[in-house]
Design a protein that fits this description.
8-stranded mixed sheet; 48% helix; 2 domains
Length: 386
């Protein structure tokens, strides 16, 4: 490898990384500001079915149902279904304690989240389907705000805005920073036209747009919304429809991210039109979704090219990269009270996210269902109410 080739390759990789992390968000922000489309919200009196797919969610179910029953939405228009996907803890016992308040329990054999959602959609009756996970607490006006967006006939899917609870743990503090970055991108895409999916823990869709989800699907929150997208509808985020979540541990976020990015590979196979000009958000698909998947390979190329740079530059670039990875590696050993933790913790969080993209190719070698793991949280309530 000649020095000229190494320099050229190094600069191209740096430019691609700069575009993925900063250039694309800047372009997206400009396009959304210049060409963004207004959503015409209005009071809607539509029937709503809230579907809560859960496997062993006793720790969260009571708080979830309390928040759902406290929604400021006409009770006669609201249907609440708990879809127990082969739960073996007290999930079903807790759900039955809410049956007198209108909550319906659907007991299902363990088949995975897509199978539970398919069953729930088939048994529900609402014009609008709200799909939500068990862990997130909904704000009182959240569902009314989602439904108001469907006054705009161009809207097919509306995601809620997922907020993270504050954590004093330095390690856990880094995920909300990443999530704010990700939320901002999704909101701008929705303003411009559409997200390329939905916010899985809390989103809504018109009933007539809901399709059957293949049972090995990793990302229902992409499969269902994209079916609506390719029928010409918009997929948006409504900032007034808020849900509150707990910050996941870094280990849990690694597993979730592997599953999510593996799901992106799967979705590209399920929806080959994403690669064509039938995809109105084609450039955003490449810049955002594909860009995230190629990040680990770009960083590996960056290191390879760095070794072949001329003179001092090779030593400086290799040392900078190796030093960064060492910071990430020593983070578990650094006490929270040390100032160094403010460097090691973000470095570790960043490396974990990049590593997840590398491991996402496992979807080509193992059954997709094996990638589903329980989420471990940095802080959470002590248990479900009896």
């Amino acid at each position: 490898m000649t020095s000229t080739f190494a320099i050229t390759g190094f600069l191209i990789v740096v430019a691609l990384l700069a575009y993925i992390f900063a250039g694309y968000p800047m372009l997206l922000g400009f396009l959304a500001l210049r060409f963004g489309k207004h959503i015409r919200k209005g009071d809607q009196q539509k029937t709503v079915s809230i579907l809560i797919a859960v496997h062993n969610g006793e720790q969260f179910l009571a708080a979830k149902l309390d928040s759902v029953l406290a929604l400021r939405y006409p009770k006669e228009l609201l249907e609440v279904l708990v879809l127990s996907d082969g739960s073996t803890d007290r999930t079903e016992e807790i759900a039955r304690q809410y049956e007198s308040r209108g909550v319906k329990l659907l007991v299902l054999p363990k088949g995975g989240k897509p199978a539970a959602l398919n069953a729930g959609i088939a048994r529900s009756h609402g014009e609008i389907l709200v799909l939500t996970d068990v862990r997130q607490v909904l704000e009182p006006d959240s569902v009314a705000q989602l439904v108001a967006c469907f006054a705009d006939p161009s809207v097919g899917v509306v995601s809620g805005d997922l907020l993270m609870r504050r954590s004093d743990d330095l390690e856990l503090r880094n995920f909300p920073i990443y999530w704010r970055y990700e939320r901002w991108i999704r909101k701008q895409q929705g303003k411009l036209d559409s997200m390329l999916g939905a916010t899985g823990p809390f989103y809504s869709i018109r009933r007539e747009l809901a399709v059957h989800i293949p049972e090995d699907t990793l990302l229902d929150d992409m499969y269902l919304p994209l079916a609506a997208f390719f029928r010409g509808y918009r997929l948006i985020v409504d900032e007034d429809a808020r849900a509150l979540d707990y910050v996941p541990s870094l280990k849990a976020e690694f597993g979730r991210k592997v599953r999510t990015l593996a799901g992106n590979f799967q979705i590209m196979w399920q929806y080959p039109a994403l690669w064509t000009f039938r995809n109105r958000m084609w450039i955003h698909f490449l810049s955002h979704k594909v860009g995230r998947l190629v990040l680990p390979y770009l960083f590996l190329l960056l290191l390879v090219f760095s070794f072949r740079l001329p003179g001092y530059w090779a030593w400086a670039m290799v040392a900078a990269q190796v030093g960064f990875y060492l910071l990430a590696a020593v983070d578990p050993l650094v006490p929270d009270s040390w100032l160094l933790k403010r460097l090691t913790s973000p470095a570790r969080a960043f490396v974990v996210m990049i590593a997840a993209a590398l491991f996402a190719i496992v979807v080509f070698f193992v059954p997709p269902r094996k990638l589903w793991k329980p989420t471990q949280l940095g802080s959470a309530p002590s248990g479900g109410r009896g």
